[in-house]
Design a protein that fits this description.
Elements: E1 2-7, H1 11-22, E2 28-30, E3 44-45, E4 55-56, H2 57-70, E5 74-76, E6 80-84, E7 90-94, E8 98-106, E9 110-112, E10 128-129, H3 132-135, E11 143-147, H4 151-160, E12 166-170, H5 180-188, E13 192-195, E14 198-204, E15 211-216, E16 222-226, E17 229-232, E18 236-238, E19 268-270, H6 282-310
Helix pairs in contact: 1-2, 1-6, 4-5
Length: 315
């Protein structure tokens, strides 16, 4: 019986592991086959406090992991395939094992949706990104392309005008899906151009992005387009597949938390991007990991008190 199982190993999961381990709860972290979350796909991180010179995303996650292990967290690089939160103890399954726990912290994150086109994966972190807040400052006075047509895409484009000399929004339809207020802001910004009825077919560049191949879906034409960066803003998908039917999800598929890290299941807590579709930053994820671990600790203390009060008196 585990006191705490943490599912996920990004900033939220590993911060939860640090706090739970320091509380002598000996957490078990089921990290997934590829631990570290979205930061493992990031090159330099300049906005995480404590690193004034910046740090590479994978290096930051190695430090998170080492710190959690230092305090006694046990980390297994296995994927969770199913959970059973309908009964006590809570049950978590991997391909080869079944674990039981008094509490579970879900920190499985969210995955950015990609275009799945040639050159995109190879140039991730070299001009291809899904996070303007994370990477926008690397492209000062550059020409930046944003793909998408919803509020998130326009938020990215507007934010990137702080850095780029020009921002071009490419959308596959002839009108935006974004709200009117966001559309009006983008249209009125002198730095933003828009290309309609167009999709990106390929990303060009050797060690950094130099251009794109675009395809007009109306007339079928294909042409080359020079740019220094490509920001893909077509949405995120919360990693909640194994929790469907087990935990309440909101209308976007994120785990619902009526109060802080608390879910609808007693003893199950949530942290990080699997619950946050607004900020999606390493530092905010880490903060929610701290919160979830502290809430789990308080829950276990209350559980022990209840058990002690129910124990037969020796007098």
């Amino acid at each position: 019986m585990e006191r705490v199982i943490v599912i996920g190993s990004g900033p939220a999961g590993l911060t939860a592991a640090v706090y739970a381990a320091r509380a002598n709860l000996r957490p078990l972290v089921l990290a997934g086959g590829l631990y570290g979350g979205q930061l493992m796909l990031t090159t330099e991180v300049e906005n995480y406090p404590g690193f004034p010179e910046g740090i590479m995303g994978p290096d930051l996650m190695i430090r998170f992991r080492e710190q959690a292990e230092r305090f006694g967290a046990r980390i297994e690089n296995v994927d969770v395939t199913a959970v059973d939160f309908a009964r006590r103890p809570l049950s978590v399954h991997t391909y080869d094992e079944q674990y039981e726990a008094e509490t579970v912290i879900v920190a499985t994150g969210a995955s950015a949706l990609w275009l799945d086109i040639p050159g995109e994966e190879r140039l991730r972190g070299r001009g291809v990104s899904t996070c303007a807040t994370c990477d926008g400052a690397f492209f000062r006075d550059k020409h930046i392309v944003v793909v998408g047509g919803g509020d998130s895409a326009l938020e990215e484009a507007l934010f990137l005008t702080r850095f780029g000399r020009r921002v071009t929004l490419i959308h596959r339809r002839d009108r935006l899906r974004a709200s009117k207020i966001m559309s009006d802001r983008a249209r009125s910004n002198e730095k933003i151009d828009m290309i309609w009825n167009t999709v990106v077919e390929e990303v060009h560049g050797d060690d950094h992005v130099t251009g794109l191949r675009l395809h007009n879906v109306t007339d079928g034409s294909t042409y080359e387009f020079e740019t220094d960066a490509l920001f893909v803003a077509i949405g995120h998908m919360p990693n909640t597949g194994v929790f469907a039917g087990q935990l309440d999800l909101d209308e976007r598929g994120y785990i619902a938390s009526p109060d802080g890290s608390v879910t609808n299941v007693e003893g199950v807590f949530v942290a990080g991007d699997v619950n946050d579709h607004r900020y999606r930053q390493a530092v905010t994820a880490a903060g929610t990991g701290c919160r979830a671990a502290m809430d789990a600790e308080k829950y276990l203390e209350a559980l022990e008190f209840r058990m002690d009060s129910l124990a037969p008196s020796s007098f």
